[in-house]
Design a protein that fits this description.
35% of the residues lie in helices and 33% in strands. It contains three helices and five strands. Strands 1-5-4-3-2 form a five-stranded mixed sheet.
Protein backbone atom coordinates (compact mmCIF):
# COMPACT_ATOMS: atom_id res chain seq x y z
CA UNK A 1 0.00 0.00 0.00
CA UNK A 2 1.24 3.46 -0.83
CA UNK A 3 0.61 6.12 1.79
CA UNK A 4 -0.33 9.66 0.90
CA UNK A 5 2.01 12.27 2.40
CA UNK A 6 0.45 15.63 3.23
CA UNK A 7 2.57 18.62 4.24
CA UNK A 8 1.29 21.05 6.86
CA UNK A 9 1.90 24.75 6.30
CA UNK A 10 4.43 24.71 9.15
CA UNK A 11 6.29 21.77 7.59
CA UNK A 12 6.58 23.69 4.31
CA UNK A 13 8.05 26.68 6.17
CA UNK A 14 10.48 24.42 8.02
CA UNK A 15 11.52 22.72 4.79
CA UNK A 16 12.41 26.03 3.11
CA UNK A 17 15.05 26.66 5.81
CA UNK A 18 16.90 23.46 4.83
CA UNK A 19 16.60 23.37 1.04
CA UNK A 20 20.19 24.66 0.66
CA UNK A 21 21.61 21.73 2.68
CA UNK A 22 21.83 18.86 0.17
CA UNK A 23 23.08 16.21 2.64
CA UNK A 24 20.04 16.74 4.86
CA UNK A 25 17.68 16.88 1.87
CA UNK A 26 19.02 13.60 0.48
CA UNK A 27 18.51 11.85 3.84
CA UNK A 28 15.04 13.40 4.17
CA UNK A 29 14.14 12.17 0.70
CA UNK A 30 15.09 8.60 1.69
CA UNK A 31 12.90 8.81 4.79
CA UNK A 32 9.94 10.27 2.88
CA UNK A 33 10.16 7.65 0.13
CA UNK A 34 10.09 4.95 2.79
CA UNK A 35 7.12 6.60 4.55
CA UNK A 36 5.21 6.82 1.27
CA UNK A 37 5.94 3.21 0.34
CA UNK A 38 5.67 1.44 3.70
CA UNK A 39 4.20 3.86 6.25
CA UNK A 40 7.44 3.67 8.27
CA UNK A 41 11.02 4.92 8.12
CA UNK A 42 14.10 2.67 8.31
CA UNK A 43 15.36 1.85 11.81
CA UNK A 44 18.59 3.76 11.09
CA UNK A 45 16.52 6.96 11.54
CA UNK A 46 15.51 5.87 15.07
CA UNK A 47 11.74 6.36 14.68
CA UNK A 48 9.85 6.64 17.96
CA UNK A 49 6.55 7.93 19.35
CA UNK A 50 6.41 11.26 21.15
CA UNK A 51 4.60 12.06 24.38
CA UNK A 52 3.03 15.04 26.10
CA UNK A 53 1.82 17.74 23.72
CA UNK A 54 3.09 15.61 20.83
CA UNK A 55 1.39 12.34 21.76
CA UNK A 56 0.02 10.51 18.70
CA UNK A 57 2.96 11.87 16.67
CA UNK A 58 6.15 10.10 15.64
CA UNK A 59 9.65 11.50 15.33
CA UNK A 60 12.81 10.34 13.64
CA UNK A 61 16.38 11.60 13.40
CA UNK A 62 17.01 12.26 9.71
CA UNK A 63 20.62 13.32 10.21
CA UNK A 64 22.08 14.10 13.64
CA UNK A 65 19.90 16.77 15.26
CA UNK A 66 17.72 17.13 12.13
CA UNK A 67 14.30 15.75 13.05
CA UNK A 68 11.08 14.92 11.24
CA UNK A 69 7.76 14.85 13.10
CA UNK A 70 4.72 13.27 11.50
CA UNK A 71 1.22 12.16 12.37
CA UNK A 72 0.82 8.52 11.52
CA UNK A 73 -1.65 6.74 9.27
CA UNK A 74 -4.97 8.47 9.49
CA UNK A 75 -6.97 6.64 6.83
CA UNK A 76 -3.94 6.12 4.59
CA UNK A 77 -2.61 9.67 5.06
CA UNK A 78 0.65 10.57 6.81
CA UNK A 79 0.74 14.21 7.83
CA UNK A 80 4.23 15.75 7.78
CA UNK A 81 4.07 18.16 10.71
CA UNK A 82 7.51 19.65 11.53
CA UNK A 83 11.15 19.56 10.48
CA UNK A 84 14.13 20.95 12.38
CA UNK A 85 16.47 20.62 15.36
CA UNK A 86 15.44 19.72 18.92
CA UNK A 87 15.79 23.36 19.99
CA UNK A 88 13.73 24.63 17.04
CA UNK A 89 10.95 22.10 17.58
CA UNK A 90 10.85 21.72 21.34
CA UNK A 91 12.57 24.88 22.60
CA UNK A 92 15.19 22.89 24.50
Amino acid sequence: MNWSLKQTTQFKKDLKRYLNQPDKMKALERALISLANTGTVPQEFNPHPLSGNWSNHLECHIKGDFLLIWYDKESGIIKLVRLGSHSELFGK
